[in-house]
Structure formats: C-alpha cells, structure tokens
Amino acid sequence: MTGFSATVLTLYPEMFPGPLGASLSGKGLEKGIWSLETVQIRDFATDRHRSVDDTPAGGGPGMVLRADVVGRALDSVAADDRPRLLMSPRGRPLDQGRVRELAQAPGVVILCGRFEGVDERVIEGRGLSEVSIGDYVLSGGEIAATVVLDAIVRLLPGVMGKVSSGSEESFETGLLEYPHYTRPQVWEGRTIPEVLTSGDHGAVARWRHERAEEITRERRPDLWRAWRDARGTDPARK
Ligand code: SAM
Prior knowledge:
Elements lengths: L3 E7 L12 H9 L2 E7 L12 E2 L9 E2 L1 H9 L8 E10 L2 H9 L2 E5 L8 H6 L3 E4 L8 H13 L32 E2 L2 E2 L9 H19 L1 H11 L7
Helix pairs in contact: 3-5, 6-7
The structure holds S-adenosylmethionine.
The site of S-adenosylmethionine has 19 residues, from β5 and α5.
C-alpha cells in the first residue's frame, strides 16, 4: 500500500470522490499521494430484499443500521493499522490537532451512518472511534467523511505544493488567521493597510500577529483563553 489510503463504507458510494476529486485533493488522488476506495454496505446484506436496517429495539422513530451487516462490511476491509472512524454527531468534535494526527496515519477507514445511526454493538465490537464535524445533525455521514478527508489530505506531503506548511493558518498557531489583501491597491475606495506594502518584514509580521490576536479575542473567546493560558502571563513567550 503506498500513500495515504482511505476506505469509506457507505450506502451511497456514488457520493465519492465528489468534491475530493477536484482541486488539490483531486490532483493528490491523480498523483497517487492518497487513494480512495468505497465499500457498499448493502453488498453485505443477506436477505432477498438486501436490508441493511431495522426498527430500533425499545421502539421509537426511524431505523438503525444492523450490526451484522455493518460488521461484515467492516470485516471485508483489510485488517491493518488504519484508525477506524464512525461519523457521528455524538463523537469527539474534529479539530486541527486530530486532523494532524490522522494525517500521520497510513490511512483511515470511515463508516458513514444513515437513518438514526448504527447499532451500538458494532461500534463497541469493532472499536470504532466516533468523530463529529460539529453540533448539528446531517442526514448521513458521507458529507462529514468528505470534510474529514479534505482536511487530512491537504496536509499530506506534496498536496499543497509551495504553501505546504500551512503553518500560519487558523488553528495551526492557536490563533485565527490575520486578514489577507491582494491587488488592486484600491477597491471601491478601500485601501490595503499601508504596513503591508512598506517592505518592512518585521512590521508586517507584528501587524499580522496583532490582527490575529484581535480577531481571535473578538470572535473566539474559547480559543483566546486557551492560547493565553498556554503562554502563561509572560508576554516574552508570545
Ligand atoms: N440519531 C442521530 C443522533 O441524534 O445523534 C443522528 C443520525 S443522523 C440523521 C445520520 C448519520 O449522519 C449519523 O449516523 C452520522 O453518520 C451522520 N452525521 C450526522 N450529523 C453528523 C455530525 N455532526 N458529524 C458527523 N456525522 C454526522
């Protein structure tokens, strides 16, 4: 197996690669920096209706993906060191730290839920790690899996080219990113801040850092507190 290898188990394989086939991630796929295979969960149903779901034990609305069908689908994927994730609104919220961790792995196996979700026994029995992409409910795990893969793939060596480090981006430094400007110099009466065209690299770096602090403080008090706490009160450590 070469490159980062992603396997997605889904009832809708036609949703892949989807947006992942375009732009940086699409070029990465073409170059073999990463690979993507899908597994149709329905292929592991055994009854003549090819059923994958059933009514919830204990009653209630909706349907639940069956442990036996999903278990067989998971077992069809090569046993290797790749983390096995279940997309789930009750999972640990995805953040850039987790994305960086996943990008270091040989690949990832992602199970996409549908309906009310997946029988708990398959989550326990196959040691799935539940990942949420935010505090809202999607109709299925496919878009969430696409988000996770997009975030991982852009960090793989060779995918971003010259902008490869991404080291100044939001979340990478613990702060949100400073504002960007480009030509034209004046647009609808709005000018580019003078310092950015001064040629003084030190002044530019200071201005960007101050703006990043200001934006984080205003928009994300949670990140601001964490960033300040990590540095203690010593301004020299900033
Ligand atoms: N009954 C579930 C609950 O209340 O937590 C919601 C199920 S949702 C309609 C169907 C599937 O979409 C989930 O099994 C999961 O795979 C996916 N999904 C929905 N919201 C998600 C989120 N915020 N993050 C990751 N996956 C999500």
